[in-house]
Amino acid sequence: MAKLTREDVLKLAYLARLEIDESEIDRYQTELNEILKYVEQLQDVPVDTLSPTNQVTGLTNVTRDDCLIDYGYRPSDLLINVPAVVDNQIKVKRIL
Amino acid sequence: MSQWPDLKTLADNVRSRKTTATELVQQSLKIIADKESYQAIISTLDDAALKRAAEIDKNIASGKTEGRLLGIPFIAKDNFLVFGGETTAASNILKGFIAPYQATAINKLEAEGAICVAKANLDAFAHGASTENSDFMVTKNPFDKSRVPGGSSGGSAAAVALEMAPFALGTDTGGSIRQPASFCGVVGYKPTYGLVSRSGVIAMASSTDVIGPLTKTVNDAALILDIMAGVDRLDSTMIERDSANYDELKAELKGARIGIVEEYMGPGLDSGVKNTINKTITACQSQGANIKPVSLPSVTYALAVYYIICPAELSSNLSRYDGQRFGYSYPKATSLEESYIKSRSIGFGREAKRRIMIGTHVLSSGYYDAYYKKAQTVRTKLINEFNETFKEVDYLLGPVAPTTAFKIGQNADDPLKMYLSDIMTVAANLTGIPAISVPGGMSNNLPVGVQLMAPQKHDRQLLALALAVEGVMK
Fold first, then answer.
1. How far is CA B193 from CA B122, B128, B249, B330, B346, in A?
2. Which end of chain B is more exposed for a tag (fewer CB within 10 A), N or C?
3. At B167, phi and psi to the nearest 5?
4. Catalytic residue status for B176
């Protein structure tokens, strides 16, 4: 498969909402291409009619009763790590 | 000489008031302080642990002496949410994070009287095989300070080897309990996928993550598994546990059909590691085990499968670190997007960024079929081969890793070389089967682990075999 270009690396970083320092782009480009080259050995593995495996438990449709479970937490307990809280709500930068 | 007797004896000693929970916690905290130079521990929970110990001692004085781990201190990898201190996953982005709730595994251990005294170092977010990817420090191998303890549960493995506590908890996504156990000469157990609740443990790759114990003996690992196993409504990926206990084991090698995976014994395997495995095989044979070479051709592709599926899943799991609800938040952002980008770019380390970008690439439109779907399909092929092999043999035996503990810095600049350390452990994660690392001996003064595997849900049988192997290797 085609190797990642510098532009590809920057695009991937942006898709993942990451910013890469100009001085580090070359290094990431080399490392990512080495990893991709290694995993591309799978292209040669014949898999015929096999289906993909998403999970290994064999569980399907795990459900629970649709009821309130009281774990005894107060909103303030659950908001202790939030950078900005106003009236028990998470404050973020303007969206619209 | 060992500081700690086995867990059962230790709990009985507390119960019969030969010692107290407070004394055990103090002893553990003292050893942690004395051996600080190994950098195995990120934080200690002195106040919370001593408070809990005092409560337990008070209960014992008033006749409440139940608990299979009564008064026993332990150490959790710092990706378990534990009350009483920070949970960082050894990452800058979670520095200062206080657990708002506690992991189910911790709750279950506490219900039996155990006391969490400290949080152990790891590769940040469990991405690594040496603890060198920790954003805070590199843990030193207890047998040679110039070498790594393995990873990602390197702090937990080193802590148990250094006797900082009688047992520790780790997580194993691609070998992160077994490989450090091998490098540090302790027992490391990876249960069947889904047997132990992961609620309150920081997610890496959700389809392969499991949690498990690091201990001095197989019996201790079995006891911890027995306490932690079982359905939890906070984790919807769980399977039913055995109704029988996991810790009532009958060690038996006679008649056990043990397969030796040929692909793990080939070139690239360190000669000292190979000798240890061969010695183990001979010892098992002399006790009546039926040894048979087996071939699982797809295990040679398991690492490539893993390094597609794992980054794909973790890139999704790490998207929640956006600087808005918890974790590092860039204070000078003028827009929401800038806040996301700056918070993540400053907060995440190099390895996390690398894996997030690989994961983003293999899941992206146009590449999804070629990478992710293909990897999942080869995963099916791998599972089929294991199922076929387990019709002929009951267990598999082989090395945990191709080498003993390597030098600090030796693989640090080459991510792919570091990934190769997982080559013999990832198959158990991709197939969901249980696996264990048992100390097998020493090579050039460094420990070598022996890996044993069994079919899914055969945890009790696997632990019984491990107990027998531990016996013959002593």
1. 21, 20, 21, 37, 34
2. N
3. -155, 165
4. yes
Calculate ∠ Cα B108-B95-B208, nearest 5°.
50
Q: Which of residues 398-417 of B touch A (CB under 8 A)?
A: 415-416
Tokens of B244: 């029988």
pLDDT in tens, chain B (474 residues): 578 999 999 999 999 999 999 999 999 999 999 999 999 999 999 999 999 999 999 999 999 999 999 999 999 999 999 998 999 999 999 999 999 999 999 999 999 999 999 999 999 999 999 999 999 999 999 999 999 999 999 999 999 999 999 999 999 999 999 999 999 999 999 999 999 999 999 999 999 999 999 999 999 999 999 999 999 999 999 999 988 999 999 998 999 999 999 999 998 899 999 999 999 999 999 999 999 999 999 999 999 999 999 999 999 999 999 999 999 999 999 999 999 999 999 999 999 999 999 999 999 999 999 999 999 999 999 999 999 999 999 999 999 999 999 999 999 888 888 998 899 999 999 999 999 999 999 999 999 999 999 999 999 999 999 999 999 987
Q: How far apart are CA A79 and CA A95, in angstroms?
A: 21
SS3 B115: strand
- Given B77, B119, B140, B190, the catalytic residue: B77
Count contacts between A and B (CB, < 8 Å): 166
CB contact under 8 A, A56 and B431: yes
Q: How far is CA B349 from the centre of its chain?
A: 21
Chain B residues 307-336 within an 8 A CB cutoff of chain A:
307-308, 315, 319, 322-327, 329, 333-336
Question: Are A1 and B342 a contacting pair at CB < 8 A?
Answer: no
A contact test, residue of B209, B361, B387 with most A CBs within 10 A? B361
Cross-chain CB nearest to B100 (options A1, A9, A81): A81
Q: For A10, phi and psi rounded to 5 degrees?
A: -65, -35
Amino acid identity of B320? R
Please name the member of A9, A32, A80 whose beta carbon is closest to the beta carbon of B98: A80
Sketch the domain layout of chain A as residue ranges: 6-44
d(CA B295, CA B309): 24
Question: Looking at B91, B156, B176, B315, which residue is catalytic?
Answer: B176
Evaluate whether B139 touches B78 at the Cβ level (below 8 Å).
no
Tell me the CA distances in angstroms from B136 to A18, B147, B282, B333, one per residue in order. Answer: 21, 17, 43, 26
Ordered by where they begin, the domains of chain B are: 1-257+396-474 (3.90.1300.10)
Residues 52-71 of A with CB under 8 A from B: 52-57, 59, 62, 64, 69, 71
CB–CB contact A28 B301 (8 Å): no
**Is residue B77 annotated as part of the catalytic site, yes or no?**
yes
8 Å CB contact between B348 and A18 = yes
